[in-house]
Model the fold of this input.
Amino acid sequence: MKIIRISTLPGYEEWKDNAKSCLLDYIPPSSIAWKDINEPQDELFAGIKSKKTPPSSPHKPVLKVPKSFVELAQTACCHKDPERFSLLYKVFWRINFENRKLLSQSLDDDIILLNKMIKEVRRDSYKITAFLRFRETLYEGKEHYVAWYEPFHYTLERALPFFTKRFRNMNWSILTPYRAAHWDGENVLLQDNPDPSQVPDEDRIEKYWLTYYAGIFNPARVKKSAMLAQMPKKYWNNLPEAKLIPDLLHNSEAKAREMIDKIKA
Amino acid sequence: MQDKIETKLEILADAAKYDASCASGSAGKRSAGKGEKGIGSLTGGSGICHSFTPDGRCVSLLKILMTNYCIYDCHYCINRISSNVRRARFTVQEVVDLTINFYKRNYIEGLFLSSGIIKDPDYTMESMVKIAKSLRVDHHFKGYIHLKTIPNASPELQEEAGLYADRLSINIEMPTQKGLNTFAPEKNISDITGSMGRLRNKISEHKTSKTHTGKRLPRFAPGGQSTQMIVGADASDDKTILNSSVDLYQTHKLRRVYYSAFSPIPDASLILPLKPAPLIREHRLYQADWLLRFYDFSLDEILQGTKNNMLDMDHDPKLAWALRNRHLFPIDINKADKKLLLRIPGLGALTVQKIIKARKYCNLSWSDLTKMRVPLGKVKPFITASDYRPPAYLLDMESLGNQLKNTEQLDLFGRAV
Ligand code: SF4
Done:
């Protein structure tokens, strides 16, 4: 069994180099154990690092994948499931040796899994554009907007084009548990393992947002499950308004009754 | 202690929350280019939901009234002159600042502004236009702006609004003039549709024409117009309501008609019903509206065989139609064309797409449908697959309608699939 440990995040480039050389050596998916950075390093195999295996087979397979596979693989690599690399290798293998059109077989079990991962990553990349909240601060005398955000997958990089477009003329920093991105109006600077204490605890406008959020809620129409479907609790840490939800729900009945009483009066 | 802005925000957000049209419509894509001033972008599609309130609704825009003072006396409205609610009024600058500040923190996609009528319609409309203009011209704001135009404001002001707003709307409120006479005596349906007609012409003129020097005309409400109808305050049946929607879509090219189930308001006028209209009715109207616009159903088909021209409350309109037309089923999912697939209860547009793609490679079986997460209980009587035929008695059963009562799957937009 060959063990390959991908030590970067999300890991696409590193996976790709390794996958290519493994395929060129005809190493079948069942003979490789792919590990990601978060898996405990096995003592026995400590020291074995991922590296390009020198090509050894005389008959080189032609490495060809449909264009769309690259984008799909990049996306799937952002998933936090450590199984992503072995699944991708299996699909990569099957495209080359079994069926060129595998990707369009939407009912194939591997493709179902792959599509599910991709869907989850896309959703998570969308949620970061929705749920991230900036706080204003001063940095070197200039307005600077800072956010702490905990994505569910490794989706910071995927979301950056949205932020550089929308907030092009602002200086901002987005900090996530694994990486931060800093924008100065022209360039993005990435930094690993940022320090969350750099994020301000307060913002002068946030109280208005909370007032607004509480104000537009209609206590007579509570639909908690509809809210949770779109805004699962795992995202609440990112949302200043989420701390209001328990009270809003708790008071909603009384509020609704008060409204009805007023109507009857 | 609340500051002044907090108090105003509390009153004027509360006053706006009964408006159903919350989502931002699609107005194409845009953002500040390199070296360009300004903030904001439109990502195409219907805008991002930045939060959800415990009532399950999407928070996408800063949706407020400029003021809830009003000189009119529409009975269904909490802000009418004869109601004694707390009143407040934002200044132009306050709304502009709030919008920009919210936007910079990534709370919102933009502004949805409506207003009660202060002094007169023109005065009110002028202030609203000032807000939109300041956002666009002073701040180079590229986010979304929806203005609810004031009925009876001058055509010039409505046109100016279109230069800054992505979407304009004007509430039709009631499907008939009779309804308006009773509940909104100052409003006139031909004024409202007249203004819709003028804006429709402007919108298409700006989309297609060029100036004599060959330049494109400036953007004019690229997201089109929408409107809202209150359901269940007057006696109009669903047929009357949907008829007027069809007319609004066809004649005035509206992007969207919103339905809002009447709900009693505090300090209500005596001529209003005491009970709220059932939410399910609002919901069924949205579903029927959806079938009309995207599923190639005609109004006659939707209403065929219904009682008293009211939609069936027990089943979504597509299922109700299928139950009335059982002779057309079962439909073979491996052969039927798209139009026919869309008629199968339980299959939404997305699933239909998936089916058409997947069946190119193999004959679809029952277990393939499971993999596609088709609601099997609901489609069961209506389809055949490579290894499946519904037992003949299923479609003949009187009780089929009852059995299918609770199979409805709802997504957020109230579309039945
Ligand atoms: S004009 Fe508008 S705000 Fe004024 S009473 Fe009528 S519906 Fe309410």
Summary: Residues 409-417 of chain B have pLDDT under 50 and may be disordered. The pocket of iron/sulfur cluster is lined by residues B 70, 72, 74, 77, 79-80, 116-117, 184 (CB under 6 Å). Chain B touches chain A through 59 residues (CB under 8 Å).
